[in-house]
Structure prediction request, 986 residues.
Amino acid sequence: MSIDLQLDHNSAVLPHRQISDAIRQAIIEGKLSASEVLPPVRTLAQRLGVSRATVLRSYGDLVSQGYLDAAPGRGTLVAVRSFGPILPASPEQAHNCQDLMLSPYGQRLIQGEGPLESESGLAVVGRPPIGLVPINLWKDLICKHLSHRSDRRFATDRDEFGLKPLREAYCAYVRRARAVNCAAENVVVFSSRELRLNLLCRLLLEEGDIVAVENPGLPRIRQRLWTEGANVVPVRTDFQGLDVDQLKTLPSCKLVYVTPSHNEPTGAVMSPNRRRKLLDWAADTGAFIIEDDCDSEFRYDGRPLPSLQALDTKGSVIHISDCWKILAPVLKLGFMVVPDCLIEPVRRAKAQLEQELPAIDQLALTDFINNGHYEKSIRRLRSIYASRRKTTVDALKRSFGNSILIAPESAGLNITVRFRSTMPDREIVQLPASRNLLMIASQPYYAANPVRGEFVIPFAQLEEQEIAEGIKMLSAELLPSALE
Amino acid sequence: MTLLLNLEYSPSLPPFRRLADALRTAILDGRLTPGQPIPSVRSLSATLKVSRSTVLRAIDDLKQQGYLETSKGSSTRVCKELPPGYAADRVQQHDLPRVVRRFGREVRLSAYGNRLMEREAAHVDWQKIDFGGAPSSLAPLKLWRRLMARQWSDLEKLELAGYTTDPFGYRPLREALARYLNRARNVQCTAQRVAVFGTKRLRLDAIARVLLNPGDAIAFEEPGYPEAAALFSALGANLLPVRVDKDGMVVERLIQEFDKDQAIKLVYVTPSHQDPTGATLSLDRRYRLLDWARENRVFIIEDDYDHEYLYGAKRLPSLQGLDAGDRVIYLSSLWKILFPAVKFGFMVVPHCLEAAIQQSKYHLERSMPVAEQMALADFIDEGHLERYIRKSQSILAVRRRALLYALSKHLRDRVIIYGTGAGTHILVRLKTGLDDRQVEECAEQANLSLLSTRPFYRGRSPGDEFMISFANVFEDTVTNSVETFGALVNQQEMVLHSEPGA
Prediction:
């Protein structure tokens, strides 16, 4: 590459931003010409002393902005296009924007912060590193179904809830692995995972209705619920999960969003006692519970707990999960298991919004589950992640000893740590080592009362060597200055 | 195989007993089916964190009770024949509820939910006309497979594309689309304003929810696409029907009648091939509609769902391409080309709505599968799309002629044919003594792709009006089909006449 890329480790600009800015500048100035090949991710990462994920993010940003292309077999290269700046709306049009007469929903969308910064930091979380995605197997399944001219089959099975065989396969899986109590009729396949919450909110909520969420909990979910017009109330969540007693003090709550199998970021698993209390509360008040069970398969020790839905006898729980953790980014189907009383309303709403689901993906996934690949993939990922987690914990303990607290629950794809440090969080996440570890402050997870010195490390994304080196570096950068 | 059992909630029993009970419950609940192998001892002990001897004891227990069996050299399975008293057990023993019917529970739905429950949307059996006339028998699936297969070899590219979080989709695909739509439809846009949607309906929802309040008015073609009507109604919009003639939506009427009474926020229109009449919106009306929309700050949804195939008629530029006021939201898809392999829909967003629709898309569908988007970008960029359209056009032209000939030959003065200039279906009026449903039944028996236009009318339908698809017609069989259809209709009419009181 004909440009000299230097990283400023002391800069406040994140490294991936620095890299993409430099490359973009070089393209605009003509230092990099069309079709010029950029160094492979691994090479550049090594040269700059950053993680692969950092380089991937900068290349990814540039591809999505149209500056770079990824060409099969050739690597990443400068796109053959003219790069005028994207035309801003003319002043006249900007004026129009003010009286677009948007609906309240539209206005909230515009006012909202947009995709959260924290989320862009966590964009990697939840997906498997690409090297662990069973790409070849998936390709074979897709090609197999593309080669049958089986439109008749899609045609007769066309159904807003998804292909029957897939629903049966998934139903058998969640019954087996998560003890979810359902029949195939309760299973709804979504081509868009986001649509699940969107659909439930508009079906169940009026503007201003109270929805309870965990605090701390997923920031993205709070934002989505707020956009849907909900009055989002954060409820204290400790190491036993959501505090149901606090929930009971709310005047009227229509919906609760919980992650009983594994809270982000604390990793807390909801205790059996709290589960019962939550279900009783829902049965009494008629509220619905959304159980987000997405990464529940990743528990590394301790006995796996069945889903909350498994204990529900009153039809209060809506169970959601997906295959993102195994097949991202090639497959984006999501699943929802609805209680009987919601089947018909959900069917009607689904028919309005998403009737034609990708047939080939559904057929391929059916085979994937039925042939046992799904569980095999989970097992494989689990053992890899378990050892990455262990490496992380060991390295952290070795380097930090008593000046660090590590969340005890051994589950999920992130690990939450607390440093006893005098250095401000803002500065800690800016350390080159933190960036290599993709470490972020846990503050966005808190709707109120964030904890100082608490950080999330997405260990599942990093190779063991990267983890060990990163943590060693972190201790070198952090220790002398500030640890108590 | 992973099997998760619930051992947590009966703590007074010894572990092996709890495991045996849980396994039996799994069998009785049907989670493990007769003949199915159970997970190995090692795997059970690992997932449930109990010792192997506990697992062995539990399995032994269940073998004695006749629930499990081990044949030599193979794994332990659930017995094909479960012990007697199985049904009784089913009721008594399991402490986990089986799938309980819960219709009794009261559900408080939102106003939106209640609107949905009040009235089910008119059902359109698209299968009758090959899913809106998608010539799926012509779909280039082999080519598509090749393009798809190509995408998996480069992991870095897949990973990169997977990292891009723009809710409007994979950038190179959007660029390919912007160029194609500009070439083919005179659509004026940069890739920035092209949005890719995984499914078609979400496009309408993304627009409507951002713009419409319950009670807002939306002008809608009469007859018009029923599924769009249902979506808008469910959102609480007030549908204003505007008549359609041979030049498409009667824009003059829209301007004269509705402007003063009620503020209209949106117009939904299918200008290149009106759904279902097949009319093309005239150039004059296009300009009038655009001027009126600009003055009154109304947005226009141009659904260009069926622009690919034209038979002799003049091709008019899209409304979007003529629009100088930033009022048109352009929709299109490759439904008529790659169905059923690809179900993406596209939208070209006006400048002023870019931010709002981007957000709205983010909340509906944040990302789409990458391999399909990459393959589609190649499909367009390498010229396959236009080549394929040309090729199918000539095949479809033959099919269309064959159908028209057969209809006029065998149905003669029973049939009036119109709306034949474009697309993959024609519109006919059939003079029979039968009702629409009976006509549809005759057609189905005769293997003719025919659908009544009744669901397309919000008001009273004229009746006797049908769409006939020639997308999957074969020259040598269509004459037969039409002839059989004619005969069946005759026969049905005779039956009706011979019945007393008919």
About this structure: Chain B touches chain A through 111 residues (CB under 8 Å).
